[in-house]
Design a protein that fits this description.
193 residues; OB fold (Dihydrolipoamide Acetyltransferase, E2P); five-stranded antiparallel β-sheet
């Protein structure tokens, strides 16, 4: 099944001046002609990333994105507009970080820690609300030194931190002190797992 936001290995079904139509046996998707490998033939397998183009059509690319659906990555803000910030995800098309998914004011050229999701209209988007994308299990032990990025601050609980951009951790309110803000990277010590 061809899924937006994920890599797929597909077969070339037909070649046209627009590019190669790739298939998984159920659906077809275009790989633009400038990305079709030289000497490609019908039946060849190609590994591609699936996304939507500027006209909202499902399309593929042989370029490797900096983030996939459900993953977390640090992406640079290329432009701030009236609908949100556009992040460089390593493809021809940028990834939208809508204002309602931000935890702090966007600044061009700053890197943001984000996760990729599909919005209600079926488009790939980014969010700075990371809790559901992080895991709590890790190999760290008590007193290990780690580095984390604050992704949410709660007056009641403290600061939620993404350790190694992968694990969810909490700096309790009594330790946190409330001085820093979302997006700050901080050294931490593991007190319990």
């Amino acid at each position: 099944m061809i899924e937006v936001g994920k890599d797929s290995v597909l077969n070339i079904k037909r070649l046209t001046p627009q590019g190669a139509y790739l298939s998984d046996g159920q659906s077809d998707v275009l790989l633009p002609s400038k990305q079709v490998p030289e000497g490609a033939a019908i039946g060849d397998e190609i590994s591609v990333f699936i996304y939507r183009d500027s006209k909202d059509r499902i399309i593929s690319t042989v370029r490797k994105p900096l983030i996939h659906l459900g993953e977390i990555a640090r992406l640079k803000i290329k432009q701030v507009t009236r609908i949100g910030a556009f992040l460089d995800m390593g493809l021809e098309r940028d990834l939208l970080l809508p204002f309602h998914e931000m935890t702090r004011e966007p600044v061009e050229d700053r890197e943001e820690l984000v996760a990729m999701y599909i919005d209600k209209s079926g488009r790939l988007c980014a969010t700075e609300r990371l809790y559901e994308y992080l895991t709590s299990g890790s190999d760290y032990k008590k007193d290990d030194e780690v580095t984390g990025t604050r992704y949410e601050i709660s007056k009641n609980f403290g600061a939620f931190v993404a350790v190694d951009d992968k694990y969810s951790a909490l700096l309790p309110a009594k330790v946190f002190g409330g001085e820093a803000k979302e997006g700050d990277t901080v050294p931490c010590r593991v007190t319990s797992v």
